[in-house]
UniProtKB/TrEMBL annotation:
This is Ammonium transporter. One of its GO terms (molecular function) is ammonium channel activity. Residues 1-249 form the EAL domain. GO terms for cellular component: membrane. Keywords: Ammonia transport, Coiled coil, Membrane, Transmembrane, Transmembrane helix, Transport. It comes from the Bacteria. Belongs to the ammonia transporter channel (TC 1.A.11.2) family. It is found in: Membrane. The lineage of its organism: Bacteria, Pseudomonadati, Pseudomonadota, Alphaproteobacteria, Hyphomicrobiales.
Amino acid sequence: RALEIDMDAALARGEFELFLQPRVSAVTAKIHSYEALLRWNHPQRGLVSPVDFVAVAEVSGKIIALGEWVIEEACRILAGTEVERLSINVSPLQFRHSDFQHRLGEIVRASGVDPRRIELEITESVLIDDDRRALQILKELKAVGFTIALDDFGTGYSSLSYLSRYPFDAIKIDRSFVSNLGLDESAAVIVNTIIDLGERLGIKVVAEGVETIEQALFLARAGCDELQGYLLGKPVALDERVRTIPASV
Ligand code: G
Ligand code: G
Ligand code: MN
Ligand code: NA
């Protein structure tokens, strides 16, 4: 059966799960927050990656229900565990949906979770179509306390004007640049430039896909604020181990 046909039933049966991956301070090595990464425990196919179903969910429109489930589950984790802060990925389609902001507000309010504990990761494709509306929504979300991160920075169009025009709290350097550090001279130049930009604009810079000590040292010396990647921790299911970690700073 096609994945899209299964999705409603999968939501009802509780087959989706949020894996958590730590984001760590490059200075203190303390966990700042976790990124929530969606997984589907499919009864026949096993653990399915969002790469294989998010695009399908966007085409069918199921991304709205799925995205709301992600917000609800993130709030359950924040309300019921020691996890201090979570970032959640918001699909461009979900962000542009007329009801997004309203539903997000409703779900978070009902959970009693402080919006300051939630970061929304958006990609620049959100900003391309209707940038004035996007700016208005981002400002309103920030006014309520949500923080906003620009994900996959450096891929796509990555207009530098986005960084000054929109109220981002964090920029996430795409992992393609991090993985090329030490291999490709231009990757180091690009990474340094993004870190410098973030510093000058007062936006926190987070490196993704950090897999080696060499990459971590390079990034820390360059002034990158936070690191995320397999070296610091893989995305894992919220098990008892995660439930009992001490509250992060
Ligand atoms: O965790 P993984 O490497 O499999 O994620 C693959 C892609 O799926 C990434 O681009 C990530 O941003 C995206 N993704 C992960 N979780 C979610 C989610 O909850 N919602 C949306 N829209 N995308 C997600
Ligand atoms: O697009 P986004 O940045 O949300 O995607 C995050 C994706 O990157 C997730 O699917 C996650 O599983 C994956 N990821 C996280 N850390 C690493 C890493 O160190 N190396 C690689 N190759 N992928 C990673
Ligand atoms: Mn992300
Ligand atoms: Na990314």
